[in-house]
Each structure stands twice: as C-alpha cells, then as structure tokens.
Amino acid sequence: MRGSSGAGTRKGPIRADTVVDAALALVNVGGLESLTMRRLADALGAQPPALYRLFRDKGALVDAMADAVLAAALGPLPEADWETRVEVLAGRLRAAMLGQRDGARIVGGSYTTRQPTHMLADSFLAAMTEAGFTGKAAVWATTTVFSYVLGEALEQQGRTEVDLVDMQAALSAEDYPHLARSSLPAMLEFDDRFAFGLRMLTAGLREGSTHP
C-alpha cells in the first residue's frame, strides 16, 4: 500500500506530493473517514495553513489522492488487439484501487483533471476507437468499463464478514427458490467474478461496435 506518515516538527516548505503520500498513509491506517486536515497536519509536523496553501480544501486533496492511486495503473501496454488492451487496463485499474485502502472510494468520489487520469482515459479511448466506436459512443464505452471496475472494487473493499453459506442455509426454498439453490458463496470469489464480468463486458462491446 502507498504512503508513510511520521510525526515531528517540520522544517522548511512542504511539498504537495509529500502531503498526498501522508494522506494515503493515514487512510491506510484508519480509513477515509479518519482523514482530516488537522490530523494530516499533525502527522506531517506542520500547521493546517501550510496544507491549505497547497490544497484549497479536503476535496482538492482527495482529487490529488485519486490521481496518485490512478498513477499506479499506468504503464506500457502490450501490442495486442483492443480487447486485450481493455482487459489489461481494467485489471491494472482494479489493482491500483485495491492496493490502497478505500482506493475505490477515493477515485469514485473525485473528478480529477491531472495527467494520470488523462493518460488512462486516453488509453481506453484509443482501444475503443480501434474497436469501431466513435464520438459519444467511444466515451460511453470507456465510462462503462470504468464504472464496472469501480463498482467491483467498491464492493470488494466494502465487504463485511458475512457467512454466505449459513445465510443461504437459512433461506426458505419456498420463498426464494432460485436464491436458495444458487451458488451464493461464489459472490465472494472476487477475482474470478471480476474476470467473468469483464469477459461479458468485452463481448458486449464487441457486439455493440459492429451493431451501433
């Protein structure tokens, strides 16, 4: 996971990337709810006004944190067809969010306009354009994949310790016949579930690109 924090009295100016790393480290320890500008300043050995000179408010800080999370998804792509590139990008995006506690919440609650976001979006759009999508359809295809990855990461990071086997055993087969007979515990097989959904999504994109 990203970031490290430390207390003490800071001497000299503070850098924006140092603040972002410290904020991510605090979230790793206590979750996104634990992040306050006061607590962050204390962790950095600084005063809150020093942070507000870099970030106008907590929302601006979270935007910068989202960019730092997304930066982990960047890197050279294989020379492959558009479907493979979409799958690689989606997998990297998921790994980047899961690599940071509450990473999906940080990214999902932010509208960033910095380089990592632009580079990731451009790579997705290049793949969608190669698939045959143009104009609004290319943008919508990109946001469809992004929303799927974000939703899966949000659910995985927000899961609670629920015994689905016991829960299913308590279901009435008369009231919920399909649910009672389903493979309900498979809901928590997140890696396989994600791969399955992504295959379904790319298959739908393939069909949609040939039948606009």
Detailed description of the structure:
The protein has 212 residues and is mainly alpha-helical. It has two domains: 16-55, Homeodomain-like (Arc Repressor Mutant, subunit A), CATH 1.10.10.60; 78-210, Tetracycline Repressor, domain 2 (Orthogonal Bundle), CATH 1.10.357.10. Helices cover 65% and strands 0% of the residues. It has eleven helices and no strands. The protein has helices at 16-30, 37-44, 48-52, 58-71, 82-98, 103-108, 115-131, 135-157, 164-169, 177-181, 190-210. The longest helix is centred in the C-terminal third of the chain and has 23 residues, at 135-157. The model is unreliable at 3-7 (pLDDT under 50). Residues 13-73 form the HTH tetR-type domain.
